[in-house]
Amino acid sequence: MNTNSNLYTVIYTAIIVTVVAAVLAFVSQSLKDKQEANEKAETISQMLTAGGFGSKAEFQALGNAKVLETYGNEIGEAFTVNAEGAKVADLDLEHKEIFSRSQLKAQNYKVKDGEGYEIPVFKFKNGITVVPVYGAGLWGPIWGYIAFEADGKTIHGAYFDHESETAGLGAKIKDDPDFQAEFVGEQAFFGQSPVFAIVKGGAPKEEGKSVVDNQVDAITGATMTSNGLDAAINTWLGAYAAYFGTVKEEVEE
C-alpha cells in the first residue's frame, strides 16, 4: 500500500485510535475496583471523623483496610429512610454498603423536590447517628456528614468536603478545623425553618458560644460557598425531619 496515500493515512489513524481506546478502556476497567475501594474508604473516613471516632488525618494514616475495619467494629445499623421518616431498606453491613457521591447527587434532585427520595442513616453502637448533606458550592459540588447525639437534635460533630472551592476561602469548609468545630454542641431545629443557619457576619455569641443554638458563623470572604453549604444542610436535614421526629419521640418516652 502506498504509505503516502490518503487511504493509508485514514486506515493508520483508525488503527491507532482503536488501539489507544482499547488500552484506555482496559486501564480504566483494571483500576475501577481500586477507585471504588478508595472512594468507599474516603467516604467512611469522613463519616467516622464527623462521628468523633478520630481525625481525618488519623484515618488517612491508617489506610483503607483499617478504616473499613474501624467502621465494621463501630457501626450498629445502616438503612435508608423516606420522606415520612420510615425505614425503606437496610444497607449491607457485611460489605460496608454506603452511599457514594454519585448516589447522593442522584437523591439530591428528589430531596429538593421533597418527595420520592430514599436517603441513608448510619447509626453507631455508641448512640451517634450520622447523616449526609449534599449541594452546590461556588465552583462545584459540596457535601459532608453531620453526626447527632442520641437525642436526635444535638450535633456531635461535622465534616465537610468539596470538589473545587477556592483555596483559603471556600475550601475552609474542609481545611479549617475551627469551622467544623463550631457545629459541635449546636442543635438542628427539625420541623422549623431554617433547620440550621450559617450566618454571614457572625452568629450572636456570649462567651464564645452561639446565643442561638442552631447557628454558626459563615466563612469570611466565602459568601457563595457558605450560602451553598447552608442550603445543603437545610435541604437535607429538612428531608430527615420526619425521621428525627421519631427519634425525639422515642427519647422522650
Question: What would your notes on this structure say?
Answer:
- The protein is of the alpha+beta class.
- It is globular, with a radius of gyration of 22 Å.
- Strands 2-1-3-4-5-6 form a six-stranded antiparallel beta sheet. A two-stranded parallel sheet has the order 7-10.
- The chain has helices spanning 6-50, 56-62, 64-74, 101-113, 172-175, 177-181, 223-239, 241-252, and strands at residues 75-81, 87-90, 119-124, 129-136, 141-148, 155-162, 197-199, 205-206, 209-210, 215-217.
- It has one domain (40-252).
- The longest helix is centred in the first third of the chain and has 45 residues, at 6-50.
- It contains eight helices and ten strands.
- β8 (205-206) and β9 (209-210) form a beta hairpin.
Order of helices and strands: HHHEEHEEEEHHEEEEHH
Question: What is the count of β-strands?
Answer: 10
Largest sheet: 6 strands, antiparallel
Total individual domains: 1
Shape: globular
- Main sheet: strand order: 2-1-3-4-5-6
Residue windows where pLDDT falls under 50 for at least 5 positions? none
Structural class: alpha+beta
**What is the radius of gyration computed over CA atoms, rounded to a whole number of angstroms?**
22 Å
In percent, how helical is the residue content?
40-55%
| End-to-end CA span | 87 Å
Calculate the mean pLDDT score and round it: 89
What is the percentage of strand-forming residues?
A: 15-25%
How many helices? 8
Write out key terms for the chains shown.
two-stranded parallel ribbon, six-stranded antiparallel beta sheet, 253 residues, 10 strands, single chain
